[in-house]
Each structure stands twice: as structure tokens, then as C-alpha cells.
Amino acid sequence: MFPFTPKHLDQARLYLREAAKLVAFRKDVVPEEVLKEVEAEMEALKAAVRQRERTGVEAQMQRLDDACRKLQPPLRDGGWRENVEVFVVAITIALGVRTYFVQPFTIPTGSMQPTLNGIISQASDSPPPNPIIRALHWITIGRSYFDLTAERSETIQSIEEKHHFGLNLGPFTYTLIRTDAGTYSVGVPATAVAADRRCMPGRKLNPGDIIARGATNSGDHVLVDKFSYHFIRPTAGNVFVFNTAGIPTRENVYNPGAPSQFYIKRLAAVGNDQLRIEPPTLYRNGAVAPEVPFKRVMSGTLLNPTEGGYRGYSNGPEHSTFTFLGSPKATFDVPPSCFFALGDNSYHSSDSRDWGPVPQANVVGRGWLVYWPFTRHWGTVQ
Fold first, then answer.
1. What DSSP string describes 284-334?
2. 2 domain-assigned
3. Rounded CA gap, 276 and 261, in Å?
4. In a domain, 50, yes or no
5. 3-state DSSP call for residue 165?
6. CA distance linking residue 230 with residue 243, whole number of Å
7. How confident is the model at residue 304, as a pLDDT?
8. Residue 259 carries which DSSP code?
9. Same domain for 151 and 60
10. Is residue 111 part of a domain?
11. Measured between alpha carbons, how far is 99 from 103 in angstroms, rounded to an integer?
12. Domain carrying residue 327
């Protein structure tokens, strides 16, 4: 992302993706010669993109657009045509904003707590509140309740997370609990159900037994600023988002070839900096890291007795160490054009201590604003 990719090339690639989708959608109902014309114009646009010359790319985009219009069914109603055009313009603007300015992300894990919350689940023996209170809790603090009881004598066999419409997002995620006598569905992630130790494969149930009961709070929903890093370099103390392409994270090691993930961490050091951790203190270039966010983590400030607080920096998880900075005397020199990422929840964060530095090319943007839920984290990311 340093420097900008020319906009005409980004737009051309977007045209190609959308044209491919349109061909796949309409190929069974349009003449073969129309399909061949569109495919030929797509190949011509790919060739123009390789040449990178703006005038040629824009002219070919127009020819591809004209060819794609032949894939569309005739619109007989002018009013409908106008509405569709307005919708397309709105979608284009939204895609442009998402590509160049801001993008929403959900915090899935607790690696940045208590700065940012991941998904937090708790089991309960008490039944959920009434539907009005439950709806209010969902709107304000993102809390979902679950309550399942056995309908018959049965044994739990498996717990499987599913996604409505293929979307791995809070409102579209649910869990199937299979028994030897039937299936139960609950509208929360499998991690929430697993927080209730009563819901375990192999457990035998009697009618009326609680299978799983409790609540799960949605992770913080964050808007990421993708714009400012085009003009200013990321600096130590920033909360930043990056993709894991080419980084040997646990997901990439155990599932090679899978799509890259998006991580959000604290940027601890930039290229050519040297780091050392002597718990609870983070040292950069031989001195205590001076930025306010690092001082906050190192202080061990307890923000909320029931929520926990900062514990300082560690050489690894509880009763273990990581590959990098794994001892109080170990140092690490950050390579040029790379960044070192640390989670604020140092004892429970897989970060650059585990899998190494983040290449500059992987950076997506800076964590900017928690827009939901409306907890004490709501507002700008600190």
C-alpha cells in the first residue's frame, strides 16, 4: 500500500471481477456470441492492465461495459431502471469507501483486552431475562442469551458452528448440537456454547436437563482507517490491522492454503528498532517504551475488578515462552519495512513473539473507532 496503486488499475480489476460474476450469473440465458464478446473484452482489458497505460485501460473499460450491457435483460420500466441505477451508484460508493477509506472489523478474540473486547461468553444457572430485556441488551451491549434443555433421554454427540448465508458474523452465526436422538440449534457461536461445561460430547441427558445456558457478549465492532497510512507511516503505539498472508501464524501453519486472516494488535516497533521484554516492562532500543498505551499496559492498571486489567508484557503465555523475546535477556531486531505486533493482553495473545514481524505490505489500516456495542469502549480506539 506504499505507494498508491493507480486508481484506474484498481477500477479495472473491479470491472473484471464484476464482469466475471455477471457472466457466471447470465451464461445460461444469453446467446453464445454475446458471452464470447464479453469474454474477449475481458481478455483485452487484462492486457491493457498489464500495459498500465491509463488511456488504454479506460477505453477498454468502456468497451467491456458496453459488452456487459448485452448480458442484461431489457428493462421496460423506466422507473425501475432509475431505481436500479441509484442502487448501483450507492453500492459503488460503498465499495469505494470500503476500499480506500474505512472498513468494519469485528474483534473475535481477547488478545487486546481490556483495550478491546473479543467475544466473551459465560455460563449461568439462571434462566435468561424476558424478551424485552434481551432485545435491549442485544441493541446496547451486544449480549445474546442461550438456553437449551433436553427434551428426552439422549447423549450429546457433537457441537458444530454454522453460518447463515455464508457470513461469519455475529447475527449470522449459530451452533448445532447433535445428540443420538435429535438436533438442537442455538443462535450463538460454538465458543459461547463451549463456555458452558455442561455441553460436552458424551454427556448423557435426562428430560429437562440443562444442555447449555448463559450469555455471550459480541466482540467490539471497529472501523479501521485505511486512508491515513497512505500519507503517514505507522508508528509505535498505534492499534493496527493487518492480514496474515505469508506470516506463519498458527492458522497458516495448520491449514496451509486457507484464506488469510485479519489481526488487530498494538504496533510495538518499526523497522530497525530493537525490542526486549523483561516482565512487565517493554524496552525499545534500550529504553522503556515511552508511549502512553505501553505505559498503561505495563502499569497493571485494573480497570474493572470483574473484567480484569492490564498485566504488563510477558515472554510468552502462562507457564510457557514464545519463539521471539522468549526470555528477559532475549532481544529482537525488527527487519526493515516490517513491524512488530503485540497484544495488550500479553499473556493471552498470539502475536509477533510467536510468529515474527509483520511485513509493511500486509498492513490494512489503523484501528479508529468502536461503533458498536455501546459499552465503555464505544468511541475512538486508544
1. ETTEE--SHHHHHHHHT--SBTTTB------SSSTT---SSS-STT-EEEP
2. no
3. 27
4. yes
5. helix
6. 17
7. 44
8. P
9. no
10. no
11. 7
12. 221-380
